Amino acid sequence: MVLGATPEAEYATGSVALAPGDMLLMYTDGLVTRPGDDVGRGLSRLVRSLREDASDDLQASITRIMRDLGAPNPRDDTCLIGIRVPEAVRSAG
């Protein structure tokens, strides 16, 4: 069920541990789907964009993903939210 689609919807909860340097992306289907195109192709484009991204800058990564996937999608809503866990800071001592 799409989040927020109906007030009666129930959702399971879960958790995942993120390590330093990890990035978590949450997006609507408008990022990866296009009329007449298979969702698998859109997901493959997203994975390819992520693999080519060497930036530690979250905003630069999101900008690149949006560009690579042709977002915003004029036929569907497109939302991409991301967080990146900072790398551990090493002490100088």
UniProtKB/TrEMBL annotation:
It comes from the Bacteria. The keyword Repeat does not apply. The lineage of its organism: Bacteria, Bacillati, Actinomycetota, Actinomycetes, Kitasatosporales. It comes from Yinghuangia aomiensis. Keywords: Hydrolase. Residues 1-85 form the PPM-type phosphatase domain. The keyword Repeat does not apply. This is PPM-type phosphatase domain-containing protein. InterPro entries: Bact_Sigma-Reg (IPR052016), PPM-type-like_dom_sf (IPR036457), PPM-type_phosphatase-like_dom (IPR001932).
